[in-house]
């Protein structure tokens, strides 16, 4: 609902509350008290509560907090004992990561190697410490891996900076290599007034003393690039001044690509080819982000300059809107292998190949995607001629399997924490436990979650299966009587609304986002009040937003309103997430294929949101027994921007 957000679902069923009160009596109170003791560093109170919780599902938490009070000085034997005793808890993995980072910071490499193990949530800093540990043991580090770190341009943790500084000294990197790293750091990052060590600040320390940049000047340029650029009559020659000028140009392009392009046209006569192409890459990126048709031509002026992954993605999007299939194919070919293998780019490469007449190659790519139950899987299947959706026969877990899942410590602990409203920890416990399960136990766990109205985990767990599937779990449809009542009354597609709610709240009726969006359909307070007045809902109070019937009434009414205002479900879906004004502004000067419109939405969250809601609608239609409407038909064709007029209250 016109916001970029993370939601925190809260759903305490009566059954769950009764189970909590009986099977786990006293644990929630003690766990909350132990957390409070940890926060105020009351070691004596924490020890008392830890003793009381020993032998219960809550035991890993206070014992972890005891170690965390002074982890740097913890005895390795204590850490090892914890890791072995609580291996079935997410807290064990968390402790191992924090312990390894502590050992890395203190360069205790022999102990580090004893405790090192593959983790489910690896970090770049941990991998840098692993390289440092290997180096300390006499291993020659792979230059390609170090070079990739050096030229990443991204902010890096202290462990990685230590590694790179060591490599810089040993390999004799000259100032040119440091300047090249600075260029990437200034392109990828932003200068802030905070004290954290970002890529630009760290790189600046490695430049010769007389060549270092004035970071305060960069902060000033970031806030007001126009005033700085107005003082430049031509592109400067010294390396430091060139990098500052390009940083200012990039910032100006973020604000006004056309103005930046005009400036670059004046400069380019005094620029060498490398700087000129690099600068056009900067301008083209922001022009494509702002959906300017000129972006295609400006990308051509960038020539063979090395573009970042972000720039390459936007080059594809600009080419799609410009129907330049050769450029689509060229940009995808320039992507790193890992990026090019993502479903997004495999699909659009297939489309580019097909548009250029390479039908056999396109078909091969489509076939590789078609077996997946995803947005691109559906689109690829339809390109291959699919005109119906035959979901594989569902597997229904047995009662014995559901009982087995419910008795697994990680799932039981996750359910306890969920019912305590410790959502982050509950999800982590659940994710760790499901990591190595086969399809049957995954579906049993999903059913266990469903029975306890933990719909988020039910859906996400059922989504992980590889061979055996249960689409009624993957695409849950609770509250269907309420849904049918309001969708039929308003004439809104029920499968579409279910698909939207699945993405919005995962059916948590009292979900609340970080910015205040609430209920099944995640209504913002102002939107809820406005639509309540518009439909004449007398006596509406904000507290009613968590009532299922009221929330669905308001949400479907608002969805119907934006659908009528904008004229297309794709636009209405984008509007529900980012606002009607933005959804309209993203239209083009010519009609756009719905999939191209969606692919070029500038907001990452909204782009992903529209894809998932619209593909969810196809799957829900199949699960609910509705007539098949292909995803391509649902996506349709977007009208020209000027043909869609919004009433003032829809802006």
From TrEMBL:
Keywords of the record: Signal
GO molecular function annotations of the record: hydrolase activity, hydrolyzing O-glycosyl compounds
Lytic transglycosylase superhelical linker domain: residues covered: 406-466
Pfam families with a match to the protein in the record: SLT, SLT_L
GO cellular component: periplasmic space
Domain of life: Bacteria
Residues making up the signal peptide according to the UniProt record: 1-25
Matches recorded under SUPFAM superfamilies: Bacterial muramidases, Lysozyme-like
Matches recorded under InterPro entries: Lysozyme-like_dom_sf, Lytic_TGlycoase_superhlx_L_sf, Lytic_TGlycosylase_superhlx_L, Lytic_TGlycosylase_superhlx_U, Transglycosylase_SLT_dom_1
All residue ranges annotated as the Transglycosylase SLT domain in the record: 487-588
Entry similarity comment: Belongs to the transglycosylase Slt family.
Name of protein: Transglycosylase SLT domain-containing protein
Organism classification: Bacteria, Pseudomonadati, Pseudomonadota, Betaproteobacteria, Neisseriales
């Amino acid at each position: 609902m016109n916001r970029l957000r993370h939601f925190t679902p809260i759903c305490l069923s009566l059954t769950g509350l009764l189970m909590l009160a009986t099977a786990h009596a006293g644990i929630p109170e003690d766990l909350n008290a132990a957390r409070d003791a940890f926060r105020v560093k009351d070691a004596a109170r924490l020890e008392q509560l830890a003793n009381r919780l020993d032998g219960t599902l809550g035991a890993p938490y206070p014992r972890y907090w005891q170690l965390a009070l002074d982890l740097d000085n913890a005895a390795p034997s204590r850490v090892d004992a914890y890791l072995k005793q609580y291996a079935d808890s997410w807290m064990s993995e968390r402790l191992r990561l924090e312990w390894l980072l502590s050992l890395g910071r203190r360069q205790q490499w022999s102990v580090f190697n004893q405790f090192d193990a593959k983790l489910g949530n690896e970090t770049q800093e941990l991998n840098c410490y692993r390289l440092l540990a290997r180096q300390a043991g006499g291993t020659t580090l792979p230059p390609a891996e170090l070079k990739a770190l050096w030229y990443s341009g991204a902010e890096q943790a202290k462990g990685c900076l230590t590694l790179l500084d060591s490599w810089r000294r040993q390999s004799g990197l000259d100032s040119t290599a440091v300047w090249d790293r600075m260029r990437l750091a200034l392109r990828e990052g932003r200068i802030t007034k905070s004290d954290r060590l970002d890529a630009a600040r760290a790189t600046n320390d490695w430049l010769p003393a007389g060549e270092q940049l004035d970071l305060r000047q960069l902060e000033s340029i970031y806030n007001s690039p126009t005033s700085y650029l107005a003082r430049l009559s031509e592109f400067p020659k010294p390396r430091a001044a060139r990098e500052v000028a390009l940083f200012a140009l990039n910032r100006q392009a973020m604000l006004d690509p056309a103005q930046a392009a005009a400036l670059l046209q004046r400069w380019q006569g005094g620029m060498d080819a490398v700087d000129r192409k690099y600068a056009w890459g900067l301008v083209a990126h922001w022009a494509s982000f702002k959906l300017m048709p000129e972006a295609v031509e400006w990308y051509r002026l960038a020539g063979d300059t090395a573009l970042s992954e972000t720039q390459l993605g936007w080059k594809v999007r600009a080419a799609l809107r410009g129907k330049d299939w050769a450029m689509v194919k060229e940009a995808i070919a320039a992507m790193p292998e890992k990026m090019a293998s993502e479903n997004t780019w495999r699909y659009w490469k297939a489309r580019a190949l097909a548009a250029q007449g390479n039908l056999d190659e396109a078909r091969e790519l489509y076939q590789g995607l078609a077996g997946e139950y995803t947005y691109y899987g559906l689109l690829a299947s339809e390109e291959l001629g699919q005109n119906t959706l035959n979901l594989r026969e569902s597997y229904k877990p047995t009662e014995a399997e559901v009982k087995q899942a419910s008795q697994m410590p990680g799932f039981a602990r996750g359910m306890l924490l969920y019912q305590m409203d410790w959502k982050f920890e509950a999800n982590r416990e659940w994710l760790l436990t499901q990591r190595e399960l086969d399809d049957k136990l995954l579906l049993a766990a999903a059913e266990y979650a469903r029975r306890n109205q933990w719909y988020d985990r039910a859906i996400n767990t059922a989504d992980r299966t590889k061979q055996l599937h249960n689409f009624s779990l993957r695409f849950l449809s609770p509250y269907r009587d309420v849904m049918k009542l309001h969708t039929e009354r308003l004439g809104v597609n029920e499968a579409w609304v279910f698909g939207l709610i699945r993405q919005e709240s995962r059916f948590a009726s009292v979900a609340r986002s970080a910015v205040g969006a609430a209920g099944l359909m995640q209504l913002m307070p102002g939107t809820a009040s406005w639509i309540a007045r518009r439909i004449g809902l007398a006596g509406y109070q904000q507290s009613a937003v968590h009532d299922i019937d009221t929330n669905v009434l308001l949400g479907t009414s608002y969805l119907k309103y934006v659908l009528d205002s904008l004229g297309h479900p794709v636009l209405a879906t984008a509007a529900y997430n980012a606002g009607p004004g933005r959804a309209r502004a993203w239209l083009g000067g010519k009609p756009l294929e719905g999939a191209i419109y969606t692919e070029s939405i500038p907001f990452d969250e909204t782009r992903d949101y529209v894809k998932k809601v619209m593909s969810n609608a196809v799957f829900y239609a199949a699960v609910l027994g509705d007539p098949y409407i292909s995803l391509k038909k649902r996506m349709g064709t977007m009208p020209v921007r000027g043909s869609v007029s919004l009433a003032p209250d829809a802006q």
